[in-house]
Fold this sequence. Notes:
The protein has helices at residues 24-32, 34-37, 115-133, 142-160; strands at 4-8, 11-20, 44-46, 54-58, 66-75, 79-84, 87-96, 99-108. By secondary structure, it is an alpha+beta fold. Helix 3 packs across helix 4. The mean pLDDT is 96.
Amino acid sequence: MLAVIEKVEGGNIARFERLLKHSVEQVWAVLTENDKLEKWMSNLEIVELRKEGTIKFNMNDGTGSSIDMKIRVFQKHSVLEFEWGDGWVRFELSPKTEGCLLVLKESIHTISDHTSKDLAGWHVCLDMLSTLLNGHYMDFPKDEWEKWHEKYIIVVNQIEG
């Protein structure tokens, strides 16, 4: 399911939802434990898991370059929000009868050529997260990313109107 993008004061919020057949604790572990996190979002590395703590975005380009991002909101097993470019990314977990609901929100202040790429990336990474929770690992599926990127180009163009 494509992200829903809503105009808000100061920009837009992209919202992804995934109903997962896993407990909040299991999903939280995949979001916050580096050995699991690297298997679905290889750029991210938790340095200090707390409010005002740090998450590194590793460029993974062979240079060792990284960007430190501050954790803005931290509520164990519930909310993890951190800086993302000129905005933020927020993961919210809610228990459900048969697992939990994962909501990913990304604030997008300015729509650019990169927006559709970023949205397609999150979409594919959430698919990888779900696959990992189901006991399987997959390399980043570039062909799937390209498919979703084409769809998000259309979505982004509709926002720009």
